[in-house]
Task: structure prediction
Amino acid sequence: MTAVPYFALVASALALLLAYYFAKTVMKADEGTDLMKEIGQAIREGAMAFLRREYQWVSAFVAAMFVLLLIVPIEGRPSASFAYLMGAVLSSIAGFVGMRIATAANTRTANAAREGAAKALPLAFKGGAVMGFTVAGLALLGISFNYLLWVTWLGVDSAFQVVAAFGLGASSIALFARIGGGIYTKAADVGGDLVGKVEAGIPEDDPRNPATIADAVGDNVGDVAGMGADLFESYAGSVVAPIVLVSLLLSGVFIEGDKLQVFGDYESLLMYPILIGALGMIASIVGALLTRGKEGQSLSTQLHTGQYIAMGLTVIFTIVGTQWLFGGASAADGSDIVQTPIFLSLTIIVGLLGGWAIGFVSEYFTSEHYKPVKGIASQSETGAATVTIEGIAQGKLSTLPSVVLVVTMIGLSYWLGGAAFGNAGDVIGLYGVSLAAIGMLAVTGVIVAVDAYGPIADNAGGIAEMAELPSEVRDVTDSLDALGNTTAAVAKGFAVGSAAVTALALFKSFSLTAGSQVNLDINDTAVTIGLFLGAMTPFIFAAMTMSSVGRAAQAMIVEVRRQFAEIPGLREGQPGVKPDSRRCVDISTQAALREMLLPGGLAIVLPLAIGFVDVNALGGFLAGAVVTGFLLAIYMANSGGAWDNAKKYIEAGAHGGKGTDAHSAAVVGDTIGDPFKDTSGPAMNILIKVMTIVSLVFVPAFI
Result:
């Protein structure tokens, strides 16, 4: 049993080795022509420059939180400060490494596309897999090491609160990376599209457009580094939540004053989340190694093969691992700690299948193969207004099956968690709910790999256009990109679904930590006030981030128009005339860094402010924020993805194809959807978890 954290360290090391192997494979591939190399270098320099500046800004916030954790009277000082710092540093490293390889893979994927999709797809996947397994490997490494350090080796007071602080560190980086990256990428994308495609009538990614390089940079800082930090935080939070929860539920059984006194069989309940993380990692490694390009096979099948293999192996490994861990584990009176271990296995499987099902819902509402996207495309025949209306309607409709799935998953895992202990429906059932969140993200390595594949494919298409490669190359990259839009929506579905379940577990941990000081009765006026404030907060957060995109895009539009007007021969595409791309990159960088501070700070300051005023109001606040945040995340992500793929569906030839009024209407819808799906929507799942985990860590100071 005590070997579990060490096994997790081995699994994380294997994941990082796989990431290194894939990185070497990507770097060995041919970059293509000199012009392709030049374009790729410009994208890489812009992306890394932004990330360095973003981390410099965020480091000030991390330092402030480090000091705050030292001076505020919370449990686990000073260890919590160092655990927090470790979470922040590892998340930053994952983002840096992943984006470095992604910006190298884009040019190489574009060059491979000259030989067909079967050559390009595995290269793009391997580039994404570097991010995926760096994220998953470092997250599991951090969690298992923190457990060993604070619980096993040092046995510090309030060790499990300290482990929670690691999750807070990961959340801090994710919050700013998602907001800042989202604002950057959409400012460049919206500004470039409105002036380039709508006003100037030039193709997407045309080298004449000054915003094209900035747009390509944004794909990396928003959809690679941002999503990587997002799922690092989601993965870490999903493993931390059940550890903290079960430590509180069993307080007094083998934990005295929140300090582990006896390393008995009860510790298996703490080890179990780490074991599942390690087993899922091994399964993900196998799945990634079996993802290969095949001629004549659909791109979707090729890309998802590894994910399905990983999911299948996770099911098998979970059943075997659960029986091994709990078989014979007994309480002091000789009775089995877990009476029916298979039920705990089933909570993991329920979460895994629930995550896949939510992802499928996202795919249904965002893929051009299904009715919602085709319906939006057909509305383009009557203009941008009807495109917008239908996109909003389909996004809101997508919340129905997503909520049904999440509620079903919570109910089933709650019952199974209780039944495993012989107390179906008892409070211990919440342990099962928290395990379901781990199940959803057990194959995070592959999920992130498939998601990060998308921006690499998108960049490859842009490079093909800017390097003036033959049209058949762009056809290949467009097919890869269309698939990437769908996979991105699926990954967002996994992230937001796990966020809702993880937040529930963290919320229960918050109430258990507060104890009798919290009375979450809806009849309590303070709780009701908090409920309304919490329900409002995701809407305010969305408004702030979308307005930020609008202001940043406005500056980009002015600059692109200026260059078209003032640089002779640029609009006409005269030989030797090039736009000032660096200026556009700088505009997006400055805007993103400036605009991310207020919404990011809001997520930290609000729960602290409310908690110090009234802890019951804070409980209501968290409940309201989780519900509306989840709904907004689903709605905005799916609306945005649907608008994007409706545009691409038309560009592929439907409803007259490119250059038609229908295409122009679809471009407007896509432009509206950009901040929906890539800025405000994805940030919601981080928002609800950040506010919950901040409340959990600081609740001793509130009471």
